[in-house]
Design a protein that fits this description.
Blueprint: H1 2-20, H2 39-45, E1 54-58, E2 62-63, H3 85-95, E3 102-106, H4 110-127, H5 130-133, E4 149-171, E5 174-193, E6 199-223, E7 226-237, H6 240-261, H7 273-283, H8 290-295, H9 298-308, H10 318-321, E8 329-330, E9 336-337, H11 340-343
Helix pairs in contact: 2-6, 3-6, 6-7, 7-9
Protein backbone atom coordinates (compact mmCIF):
# COMPACT_ATOMS: atom_id res chain seq x y z
CA UNK A 1 0.00 0.00 0.00
CA UNK A 2 2.79 2.40 0.89
CA UNK A 3 4.30 1.79 -2.52
CA UNK A 4 1.18 3.06 -4.28
CA UNK A 5 0.92 6.08 -2.00
CA UNK A 6 4.55 7.06 -2.71
CA UNK A 7 3.98 6.64 -6.43
CA UNK A 8 0.87 8.83 -6.25
CA UNK A 9 2.62 11.64 -4.41
CA UNK A 10 5.59 11.34 -6.78
CA UNK A 11 3.28 11.80 -9.75
CA UNK A 12 1.69 14.86 -8.12
CA UNK A 13 5.12 16.36 -7.43
CA UNK A 14 6.30 15.86 -11.04
CA UNK A 15 3.09 17.40 -12.39
CA UNK A 16 3.57 20.40 -10.09
CA UNK A 17 7.13 20.96 -11.28
CA UNK A 18 6.05 20.66 -14.91
CA UNK A 19 3.28 23.25 -14.47
CA UNK A 20 5.63 25.68 -12.74
CA UNK A 21 8.53 25.27 -15.15
CA UNK A 22 7.40 28.27 -17.19
CA UNK A 23 7.10 30.49 -14.11
CA UNK A 24 10.19 29.42 -12.19
CA UNK A 25 13.34 30.42 -14.09
CA UNK A 26 16.81 30.59 -12.52
CA UNK A 27 17.90 33.30 -14.96
CA UNK A 28 15.59 35.98 -16.33
CA UNK A 29 15.59 36.66 -20.06
CA UNK A 30 16.85 40.08 -21.14
CA UNK A 31 14.89 42.42 -23.36
CA UNK A 32 15.86 42.91 -26.97
CA UNK A 33 18.57 45.53 -27.50
CA UNK A 34 18.99 47.70 -30.59
CA UNK A 35 22.66 48.61 -30.46
CA UNK A 36 25.15 45.84 -29.72
CA UNK A 37 28.68 47.18 -29.68
CA UNK A 38 32.06 45.88 -28.64
CA UNK A 39 35.40 47.52 -27.96
CA UNK A 40 36.13 47.50 -31.69
CA UNK A 41 32.80 49.25 -32.34
CA UNK A 42 33.78 52.06 -29.97
CA UNK A 43 37.18 52.26 -31.69
CA UNK A 44 35.55 52.56 -35.12
CA UNK A 45 33.17 55.27 -33.98
CA UNK A 46 35.99 57.30 -32.45
CA UNK A 47 37.96 57.54 -35.72
CA UNK A 48 38.47 61.11 -37.01
CA UNK A 49 36.60 61.93 -40.25
CA UNK A 50 38.38 61.52 -43.60
CA UNK A 51 38.98 64.19 -46.24
CA UNK A 52 35.92 62.93 -48.09
CA UNK A 53 33.65 59.88 -47.71
CA UNK A 54 34.74 56.83 -49.70
CA UNK A 55 32.05 55.31 -51.92
CA UNK A 56 32.20 51.51 -51.67
CA UNK A 57 30.10 48.63 -52.95
CA UNK A 58 29.68 45.16 -51.42
CA UNK A 59 28.27 42.36 -53.53
CA UNK A 60 28.85 39.55 -51.07
CA UNK A 61 30.74 38.84 -47.89
CA UNK A 62 29.69 35.37 -46.93
CA UNK A 63 30.69 32.20 -45.15
CA UNK A 64 33.46 30.49 -47.12
CA UNK A 65 34.24 27.82 -44.52
CA UNK A 66 31.62 25.32 -45.67
CA UNK A 67 31.43 23.96 -42.12
CA UNK A 68 28.37 22.72 -40.27
CA UNK A 69 27.71 22.51 -36.55
CA UNK A 70 29.46 19.51 -35.02
CA UNK A 71 27.43 16.86 -33.26
CA UNK A 72 28.55 13.40 -32.15
CA UNK A 73 25.11 11.78 -32.28
CA UNK A 74 23.15 13.23 -35.21
CA UNK A 75 23.86 14.92 -38.52
CA UNK A 76 23.16 18.66 -38.52
CA UNK A 77 22.81 20.87 -41.58
CA UNK A 78 23.02 24.17 -39.70
CA UNK A 79 26.10 26.17 -40.60
CA UNK A 80 28.74 26.78 -37.96
CA UNK A 81 28.86 30.55 -38.49
CA UNK A 82 26.35 33.22 -39.44
CA UNK A 83 25.36 33.70 -43.08
CA UNK A 84 24.79 37.44 -42.61
CA UNK A 85 28.36 38.55 -43.17
CA UNK A 86 27.35 41.18 -45.75
CA UNK A 87 24.96 42.88 -43.36
CA UNK A 88 27.57 42.83 -40.59
CA UNK A 89 30.15 44.40 -42.89
CA UNK A 90 27.71 47.14 -43.94
CA UNK A 91 27.04 47.95 -40.30
CA UNK A 92 30.75 48.14 -39.51
CA UNK A 93 31.37 50.48 -42.47
CA UNK A 94 28.51 52.77 -41.47
CA UNK A 95 29.84 52.93 -37.90
CA UNK A 96 33.33 54.09 -38.93
CA UNK A 97 33.78 57.68 -37.82
CA UNK A 98 30.06 57.82 -36.90
CA UNK A 99 29.10 57.34 -40.54
CA UNK A 100 31.58 59.83 -42.02
CA UNK A 101 34.07 57.40 -43.53
CA UNK A 102 32.10 55.42 -46.11
CA UNK A 103 29.15 55.81 -48.44
CA UNK A 104 27.89 52.24 -48.77
CA UNK A 105 25.96 51.25 -51.91
CA UNK A 106 23.43 48.43 -51.98
CA UNK A 107 24.58 45.61 -54.25
CA UNK A 108 23.55 42.40 -52.52
CA UNK A 109 19.89 43.08 -53.36
CA UNK A 110 20.66 44.67 -56.71
CA UNK A 111 18.03 42.60 -58.56
CA UNK A 112 15.28 43.78 -56.20
CA UNK A 113 16.49 47.36 -56.48
CA UNK A 114 16.47 47.29 -60.30
CA UNK A 115 13.01 45.72 -60.35
CA UNK A 116 11.65 48.45 -58.10
CA UNK A 117 13.14 51.16 -60.30
CA UNK A 118 11.57 49.47 -63.32
CA UNK A 119 8.16 49.47 -61.60
CA UNK A 120 8.48 53.21 -60.89
CA UNK A 121 9.32 53.98 -64.54
CA UNK A 122 6.43 51.84 -65.81
CA UNK A 123 4.01 53.55 -63.44
CA UNK A 124 5.11 56.98 -64.61
CA UNK A 125 4.72 55.92 -68.24
CA UNK A 126 1.18 54.75 -67.55
CA UNK A 127 -0.03 57.91 -65.77
CA UNK A 128 2.01 60.70 -67.34
CA UNK A 129 0.76 61.99 -70.72
CA UNK A 130 3.11 61.21 -73.58
CA UNK A 131 3.39 64.84 -74.70
CA UNK A 132 4.65 65.84 -71.25
CA UNK A 133 7.23 63.08 -70.88
CA UNK A 134 9.95 64.83 -72.88
CA UNK A 135 9.45 68.16 -71.14
CA UNK A 136 9.29 66.66 -67.65
CA UNK A 137 12.84 66.31 -66.39
CA UNK A 138 11.76 64.17 -63.44
CA UNK A 139 10.19 61.54 -65.68
CA UNK A 140 13.17 59.17 -65.62
CA UNK A 141 14.87 58.22 -62.38
CA UNK A 142 18.40 59.61 -61.96
CA UNK A 143 21.21 57.12 -62.59
CA UNK A 144 22.42 55.05 -59.68
CA UNK A 145 25.65 55.88 -57.89
CA UNK A 146 28.70 53.87 -58.87
CA UNK A 147 31.54 52.88 -56.57
CA UNK A 148 35.26 53.40 -57.23
CA UNK A 149 36.09 50.74 -54.61
CA UNK A 150 34.80 47.19 -54.25
CA UNK A 151 35.07 45.32 -50.95
CA UNK A 152 35.63 41.59 -51.26
CA UNK A 153 36.43 38.78 -48.85
CA UNK A 154 34.55 36.63 -46.39
CA UNK A 155 34.63 34.39 -43.35
CA UNK A 156 37.37 32.00 -44.37
CA UNK A 157 37.87 29.72 -41.35
CA UNK A 158 36.06 28.43 -38.27
CA UNK A 159 38.24 26.10 -36.21
CA UNK A 160 36.84 24.18 -33.26
CA UNK A 161 38.43 22.55 -30.23
CA UNK A 162 41.77 24.26 -30.66
CA UNK A 163 42.20 24.13 -26.90
CA UNK A 164 40.20 21.97 -24.51
CA UNK A 165 40.70 21.06 -20.89
CA UNK A 166 39.22 20.86 -17.43
CA UNK A 167 39.70 19.97 -13.80
CA UNK A 168 37.68 18.32 -11.05
CA UNK A 169 37.77 16.78 -7.58
CA UNK A 170 35.53 14.63 -5.37
CA UNK A 171 35.67 13.60 -1.74
CA UNK A 172 33.18 11.22 -0.21
CA UNK A 173 30.68 11.89 -3.00
CA UNK A 174 31.01 15.68 -2.81
CA UNK A 175 32.85 17.53 -5.57
CA UNK A 176 32.77 19.48 -8.79
CA UNK A 177 34.43 19.85 -12.17
CA UNK A 178 34.97 22.45 -14.86
CA UNK A 179 35.61 22.18 -18.59
CA UNK A 180 36.50 24.73 -21.24
CA UNK A 181 36.91 24.91 -25.00
CA UNK A 182 38.34 27.47 -27.37
CA UNK A 183 37.33 27.98 -31.02
CA UNK A 184 38.48 30.64 -33.48
CA UNK A 185 36.93 32.43 -36.46
CA UNK A 186 39.01 34.16 -39.15
CA UNK A 187 37.85 36.78 -41.65
CA UNK A 188 39.62 38.53 -44.53
CA UNK A 189 38.78 41.79 -46.28
CA UNK A 190 40.30 43.51 -49.29
CA UNK A 191 39.63 46.79 -51.08
CA UNK A 192 39.82 46.65 -54.88
CA UNK A 193 40.05 49.67 -57.17
CA UNK A 194 37.43 49.45 -59.94
CA UNK A 195 39.49 51.67 -62.25
CA UNK A 196 42.33 49.18 -62.76
CA UNK A 197 41.57 46.17 -60.56
CA UNK A 198 44.40 46.92 -58.13
CA UNK A 199 44.11 45.52 -54.61
CA UNK A 200 44.55 48.61 -52.47
CA UNK A 201 44.58 46.93 -49.06
CA UNK A 202 44.23 43.39 -47.75
CA UNK A 203 43.70 42.66 -44.06
CA UNK A 204 42.63 39.77 -41.87
CA UNK A 205 41.52 39.30 -38.27
CA UNK A 206 41.04 36.39 -35.89
CA UNK A 207 38.68 36.17 -32.92
CA UNK A 208 38.57 33.47 -30.25
CA UNK A 209 35.29 31.95 -29.04
CA UNK A 210 35.36 30.61 -25.48
CA UNK A 211 32.98 28.08 -23.92
CA UNK A 212 33.03 27.00 -20.26
CA UNK A 213 31.05 24.52 -18.21
CA UNK A 214 30.95 24.22 -14.40
CA UNK A 215 29.37 21.23 -12.61
CA UNK A 216 29.02 20.32 -8.93
CA UNK A 217 27.20 17.57 -7.11
CA UNK A 218 26.68 15.51 -3.97
CA UNK A 219 26.20 11.73 -3.96
CA UNK A 220 25.92 10.16 -0.50
CA UNK A 221 24.00 7.54 1.46
CA UNK A 222 22.47 9.38 4.41
CA UNK A 223 21.03 6.20 5.96
CA UNK A 224 20.27 2.62 5.11
CA UNK A 225 18.63 2.50 1.64
CA UNK A 226 18.44 6.33 1.60
CA UNK A 227 20.52 8.01 -1.08
CA UNK A 228 21.00 11.80 -1.34
CA UNK A 229 21.96 13.07 -4.77
CA UNK A 230 22.29 16.77 -5.69
CA UNK A 231 23.52 18.28 -8.96
CA UNK A 232 24.03 21.84 -10.16
CA UNK A 233 25.82 23.35 -13.11
CA UNK A 234 26.13 26.26 -15.49
CA UNK A 235 27.44 26.67 -19.01
CA UNK A 236 28.63 29.88 -20.67
CA UNK A 237 29.07 30.08 -24.45
CA UNK A 238 30.29 33.15 -26.28
CA UNK A 239 27.88 33.85 -29.19
CA UNK A 240 29.60 32.92 -32.48
CA UNK A 241 27.73 35.57 -34.47
CA UNK A 242 28.96 38.30 -32.11
CA UNK A 243 32.50 36.99 -32.52
CA UNK A 244 32.09 37.14 -36.31
CA UNK A 245 30.80 40.72 -36.05
CA UNK A 246 33.76 41.77 -33.91
CA UNK A 247 36.18 40.11 -36.33
CA UNK A 248 34.62 41.97 -39.27
CA UNK A 249 34.82 45.27 -37.36
CA UNK A 250 38.50 44.61 -36.70
CA UNK A 251 39.02 44.09 -40.45
CA UNK A 252 37.34 47.42 -41.26
CA UNK A 253 39.50 49.23 -38.70
CA UNK A 254 42.67 47.58 -40.04
CA UNK A 255 41.69 48.43 -43.63
CA UNK A 256 41.28 52.11 -42.74
CA UNK A 257 44.63 52.21 -40.97
CA UNK A 258 46.46 50.36 -43.77
CA UNK A 259 44.99 52.85 -46.25
CA UNK A 260 46.33 55.71 -44.13
CA UNK A 261 49.77 54.10 -44.03
CA UNK A 262 49.83 53.64 -47.83
CA UNK A 263 48.39 57.13 -48.38
CA UNK A 264 45.42 55.64 -50.26
CA UNK A 265 43.15 58.01 -48.33
CA UNK A 266 43.69 60.55 -45.61
CA UNK A 267 42.15 62.32 -42.65
CA UNK A 268 40.58 65.75 -42.77
CA UNK A 269 42.97 66.73 -39.99
CA UNK A 270 46.32 65.41 -41.22
CA UNK A 271 47.98 66.21 -37.89
CA UNK A 272 46.19 63.23 -36.29
CA UNK A 273 47.43 60.65 -38.80
CA UNK A 274 50.83 60.02 -37.24
CA UNK A 275 49.46 59.38 -33.75
CA UNK A 276 46.75 57.03 -35.08
CA UNK A 277 49.21 55.05 -37.18
CA UNK A 278 51.64 54.80 -34.28
CA UNK A 279 48.95 53.37 -32.00
CA UNK A 280 47.90 50.90 -34.71
CA UNK A 281 51.45 49.73 -35.32
CA UNK A 282 52.08 49.29 -31.61
CA UNK A 283 49.08 46.94 -31.41
CA UNK A 284 49.95 45.01 -34.56
CA UNK A 285 52.45 42.28 -33.68
CA UNK A 286 52.47 40.99 -37.25
CA UNK A 287 53.93 44.17 -38.72
CA UNK A 288 56.67 44.99 -36.22
CA UNK A 289 58.21 42.81 -33.52
CA UNK A 290 57.52 43.69 -29.91
CA UNK A 291 61.20 44.35 -29.16
CA UNK A 292 61.40 46.90 -31.95
CA UNK A 293 58.21 48.62 -30.78
CA UNK A 294 59.51 48.98 -27.24
CA UNK A 295 62.73 50.60 -28.45
CA UNK A 296 61.27 52.83 -31.16
CA UNK A 297 59.36 56.05 -30.73
CA UNK A 298 56.21 56.98 -32.59
CA UNK A 299 58.13 59.30 -34.89
CA UNK A 300 60.58 56.52 -35.79
CA UNK A 301 57.69 54.20 -36.59
CA UNK A 302 56.09 56.72 -38.92
CA UNK A 303 59.40 57.42 -40.63
CA UNK A 304 59.99 53.70 -41.06
CA UNK A 305 56.56 53.17 -42.57
CA UNK A 306 56.87 56.09 -44.99
CA UNK A 307 60.29 54.85 -46.07
CA UNK A 308 59.48 51.17 -46.60
CA UNK A 309 55.86 51.30 -47.81
CA UNK A 310 55.57 51.48 -51.61
CA UNK A 311 53.11 54.03 -52.98
CA UNK A 312 50.56 52.68 -55.47
CA UNK A 313 51.05 55.66 -57.79
CA UNK A 314 52.25 59.25 -57.83
CA UNK A 315 48.79 60.50 -56.89
CA UNK A 316 47.50 57.83 -54.50
CA UNK A 317 44.10 59.45 -54.03
CA UNK A 318 43.40 59.71 -57.77
CA UNK A 319 41.48 56.42 -57.83
CA UNK A 320 39.19 57.61 -55.05
CA UNK A 321 38.82 61.23 -56.18
CA UNK A 322 38.25 60.51 -59.86
CA UNK A 323 35.24 58.33 -59.22
CA UNK A 324 33.17 60.87 -57.33
CA UNK A 325 29.58 60.56 -58.59
CA UNK A 326 28.00 63.65 -60.11
CA UNK A 327 24.54 64.61 -61.24
CA UNK A 328 23.73 63.94 -64.91
CA UNK A 329 23.08 66.84 -67.24
CA UNK A 330 19.98 67.20 -69.41
CA UNK A 331 20.02 68.00 -73.12
CA UNK A 332 17.45 70.04 -75.03
CA UNK A 333 15.23 67.00 -75.59
CA UNK A 334 14.82 66.46 -71.86
CA UNK A 335 16.66 63.11 -71.70
CA UNK A 336 19.46 62.41 -69.29
CA UNK A 337 23.00 62.11 -70.50
CA UNK A 338 26.23 61.56 -68.56
CA UNK A 339 28.55 64.43 -67.76
CA UNK A 340 31.72 64.91 -69.72
CA UNK A 341 33.70 64.12 -66.56
CA UNK A 342 32.01 60.73 -66.30
CA UNK A 343 32.65 60.02 -69.98
CA UNK A 344 36.36 60.50 -69.51
Amino acid sequence: MNKYINAFFGFIFIAFLDSCSTDIQPINSDKATTDYHSQISDLLRSLPPPKKPIVVAIYKFRDQTGQYKSNDTITQYSTAVSQGGTSMLMRALLEAGNGKWFTVLEREGLTDLMNERKIINQTREAYLPEKNRVQNKAFNLPPMLYAPVLLEGGIIAYETNLLTGGAGARYFGLGGSTEFRRDTVTTMLRAVAVQNGEVLTHVDSRKTILSMQLDSGLYRFVSYQRLLELEAGITSNEPPQMAVLESIEACVYAMIMEGLIKNTWGLADSAKEQSLIAVYLNKSSDKISSDKINDATAADLIKNVDKNTPKPNDQPNAIIDDAEPSEPSTDSSGTNKPNEKNKK
